[in-house]
Amino acid sequence: MIRIPILIFFLFCSVCVFAQSDTTLLSITKNLPGAEAIENVQAYYNKLSAQLDEKLSASLNSFQKLEDKVQKKIAKKDSLLAGKLFNEVDKKYAALQSSIEKPLQALKNKKITQYIPALDSLQTGFSYLSQSGARLIGVPKEQLQAYANLSNQLKDLQLELQKVSDVKAFIKSREAILKEQLAKLGYSRQLKQLNKEVYYYTQQWNEYKSLLNDPDKACKKVLYLLKDNDEFKNFMAQNSVLAGLFQIPGGSGSSANAIPGLQTVASVQQQVGMNLAGSGVNPTQFIAQQTQKATLELNKWKDKLNSLGGGTEELEMPDFTPNQQKTKSLWKRIDLGFNIQSTRSNTWLPAITDLALSAGYKINDKSTVGVGAGFKLGWGKDISHIQISGQGVSLRSFLDVKLKGNFWITGGFEKNYQSEFTQLEQLYNINAWQNSGLVGLTKKYKIGKKAGNLQLLWDFLSYNQLPQTQPLKFRIGYSF
Description:
Elements: H1 3-26, H2 35-77, H3 79-85, H4 89-101, H5 117-131, H6 141-160, H7 162-185, H8 188-212, H9 217-226, H10 230-239, H11 241-245, H12 265-275, H13 283-307, E1 334-343, E2 351-364, E3 367-380, E4 386-404, E5 407-417, E6 433-447, E7 450-459, E8 472-479
Antiparallel strand pairs: 1-2, 1-8, 2-3, 3-4, 4-5, 5-6, 6-7, 7-8
Helix pairs in contact: 2-3, 2-4, 2-6, 2-7, 2-8, 5-6, 5-9, 5-10, 7-8
C-alpha cells in the first residue's frame, strides 16, 4: 500500500519537472524574433560570406604579384636559387584560388581550426529552437523554418572559415622561406613589402572576425533568452563545435575526439586528493583557489597583449608603421561631425551662428580629408533687436594632419553665400559667393565615448571680402 503513494509522488514530481522545463521554453516564445528579422540576419551573413571569399582571393592575388616581383629580383642574382624557391609555386596559388570557389562539401571532413564563439552559440541556439518546434506553441512553421535555415547557414559559414586557415598557412610558409633569402641577399625594400602584405592580411582577418563575433540585436536577443535555459545548456554541451573540441561534461566530445593529454576535472580532483591525503585540505577548494590565482595572472598578460595590439589569434610584429585604417571598411573610415561658430554683429551683418555638418575620410591614422556644408542663422543686431533669419550658406572642404598628441593642423577652403536669401535660385549666382582660405589648429578630445574638437582658424582671404568678416574663427565640433 505504501508503494502506490510513493509511485504517485514520483510521477507528480516528474510531471512538475517536465512542466517547469516546458514553461521555461514557452515563456520565451512571445519574445522570439520573427521570420523577417531572421531573413535579414541571413542576408547579412550571406554578404559577409561573399566578402570573405572576395578578400581571400584578393589577398592571394596581391601576395602572388609580390612573389613575382621578388622572383625576378632574385633571378638576376641567382637563377638556380630562384628556380628552387619558386618551383611550381604558381600551381599552389591556383589550387588555393580554386579551393576558395569550391562547394562546402569539400570541407565537410576538415578539422575546424577557426573557432568563433558567437557563431557557435548562434548556430547551436537556432538549431535548438528549430528542433523544439513542437513545444514552441504559437510560433508559425515559416518562423521555425527560418531558424533551421539560419542554423544551417551558420554551420556552413563555420566550415567556410577553414579557407582562412589554408590561405594563412600557405602565406606564412611562403613568408618564412622568402624572408630568409631576402635578408641574405640584402633586399630590404622587398622584405618590408613582404612584411606589410602578411601584416595587413592578418589585420583584415581580425577585422572580419570582429564582425562575426558581434551579432545583431535579433541574435543577441535569442542568446539572452536561452542563456538561463538548462535544456539549452545540455543541448549546447552535446551539439556545439566547442563540445567537439573539448571534453565538456555530458558533451559529445568523446575520448576518441578529445585533445590528447587533456585531463578531465574529475581526474584532476582525484589526483589532487591523493596528493593532499591526510593534510586536511579540501581538494575542490584547493583547485578553486589555484584556478583563481592562475586566472588573475592570465588576465594581466592578456591586458598587456591587448595594449600591444594583440588579443587576437596571433600577434604580428611589423617592422614598419602600419596604417590601422587600411583594412577597415569604408563606413568605419568615415568620420561624421557637427560644428558651431558664432560671429558678432557689425555694420553690415547681424550676429550669426554657423551650423555645419561634415564628413571626413580617414586616409590613414594621421590624416583626414573631408567636405561639409553649413547654414548661417542670423539673430539680429543686439539683444534688444532679436530677429531670426537665414543669412546664407557655406560649402566646405578640409584636411586635418596630426601634429602631436591630440593637436592637429587644419587647412581648408570654403565658399560662403553671405547674404539673406528667400529662394534657392538666389544661390545660383556664382559671383555672390565669397572665398575663405583657412589654416589653424584643432584640439581633439574625448569625454567617455563622446568625441569633440576645438578649432582656432585664420581666414587669410577675409581681408579681400566685402563685407569683410572676422579673420579669426573659433569653432566647437562634435563627432557622431
